Amino acid sequence: MKVFNYPVGVHNVFRVNGTDFQNCSKPPLSEALRSGNDKIVLATPGRKWYICGVAKHCENANQKLFINVLPQTQSPSAAPAPSPIYNKFHSSPASKRPFIFW
């Protein structure tokens, strides 16, 4: 599960496709998550893209998140170590991935 925490009214979250992610294209406002505590269950494997649709937060502040959900394995082996995350606002970049957490 991924949780987006942010001040209500300051940000929102849209699930988009890869093209809309690259272009910061927003779906209709009715599709926005805007509780400030949006929980997203990552139940199925595949690529997931999310952007902030407020003002130009996606375009100018790079407030967007890409998640690649891997299929579960049958064996109870240890999970691989998480890859570094680049948080533009709170730390120096460990990598240049476009991950921004609100």
Description:
With 102 residues, the chain is of the alpha+beta class. 11% of the residues lie in helices and 23% in strands. Residues 85-101 have low confidence and may be disordered.
How do the helices and strands line up, and which of them pair or pack?
Layout: E1 2-5, E2 14-16, H1 18-23, E3 37-40, E4 46-51, H2 57-61, E5 64-69
Tell me, rounded to a whole number, the average pLDDT.
84
| SSE run | EEHEEHE
How far apart are the first and last residues' alpha carbons, in Å?
Answer: 15 Å
In percent, how helical is the residue content?
10-25%
Q: How many DSSP helices?
A: 2
Helix and strand content put the structural class at: alpha+beta
Oligomer: single chain
β-strand number: 5
Shape, per Cα inertia axes:
globular
**Biggest sheet, strands in spatial order?**
2-4-5
Runs in which pLDDT lies below 50 for 5 or more consecutive residues are 85-101
Short account of what is shown:
With 102 residues, the chain is α+β, with helices and mostly antiparallel strands. The chain has helices spanning 18-23, 57-61; strands at 2-5, 14-16, 37-40, 46-51, 64-69.
Summarize this structure as a short list of keywords or feature phrases.
102 residues; alpha+beta; 3-stranded antiparallel sheet; two-stranded antiparallel ribbon; 11% helix; disordered C terminus
